[in-house]
Each structure stands twice: as C-alpha cells, then as structure tokens.
C-alpha cells in the first residue's frame, strides 16, 4: 500500500497538469455553486455543472490511464482533449440515465 501512494505521488509530481485541471474544475464548481445558495435552486445550472464535471472527468481519467500505462511519458493538454472527445458522450449517456433513475426514485 505504501508503494501505491509513493508511486501515485511520483506520477502526480511528474504530471502537474493533472492537478491543474482538477483545481480549475474545483474553483469553477465552488464559484457557481457558492452563489446559488443566495438565489435559490437552479436545476439548469446544476445539470450544466454535472455535465461539465463529466467532461472534465473523461479527459482527466484518460490522462491518468495514459500515464499509468506509460509511466515514462508525460500527460499533455492534448491528451485531456482527446479523452473528452473519446469518453464524454458515454459518460453523458450514463450520467443522464443515473439522473433519470434518481428523479424516478424520488417521485
């Protein structure tokens, strides 16, 4: 287990773009969701942020997949965009089905 954490930390230090993308997404989420408490619940904003999160997740996980399979290479922003293009549609369909299941479950 210690080897796993050590290896993960080494990969993240070598590929700082992974941290930058997650920090950017977190900042945007906090900015938009933080203002919603004053103005009430906005379902369209929540859905937009949910799908934005899925797009970032698709690109970020593709970068992680690349550096875990080829540790000598560094992740680039092009890898992020390739991952968004490759996995966003699948994540969006799965996320939409999950949201519909939650809506039906709450009704």
Please tell me about this protein's structure.
The longest helix is centred in the last third of the chain and has 30 residues, at 77-106. It contains five helices and no strands. The chain has helices spanning 2-14, 16-34, 36-39, 43-69, 77-106. The protein is elongated and about 50 Å long. It has 107 residues and is mainly α.
In total, how many beta strands? 0
Instruction: Give the overall form.
Output: elongated
Order of helices and strands: HHHHH
| Assembly form of the protein | single chain
Distance between the termini: 43 Å
What fraction, in percent, of the residue positions are helical? over 70%
Residue windows where pLDDT falls under 50 for at least 5 positions: none
Largest sheet: none
Proportion of residues in extended strands: under 5%
Give the rounded overall mean pLDDT.
Answer: 84
**Helix/sheet category:** mainly alpha
Count of discrete alpha- or pi-helical segments spanning 4 or more residues: 5
Q: Indicate the radius of gyration in whole angstroms.
A: 17 Å
Secondary structure blueprint with pairings:
Layout: H1 2-14, H2 16-34, H3 36-39, H4 43-69, H5 77-106
Helix pairs in contact: 2-4, 4-5
């Amino acid at each position: 287990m210690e080897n796993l954490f050590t290896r993960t930390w080494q990969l993240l230090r070598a590929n700082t773009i992974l941290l930058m993308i997650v920090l950017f997404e977190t900042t945007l989420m906090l900015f938009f969701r933080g203002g919603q408490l004053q103005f009430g619940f906005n379902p369209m904003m929540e859905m937009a942020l949910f799908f934005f999160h899925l797009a970032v997740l698709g690109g970020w996980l593709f970068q992680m997949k690349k550096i875990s399979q080829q540790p000598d290479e560094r992740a680039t922003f092009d890898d992020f965009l390739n991952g968004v293009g490759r996995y966003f549609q699948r994540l969006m369909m799965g996320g939409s089905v999950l949201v519909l299941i939650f809506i039906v479950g709450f009704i």
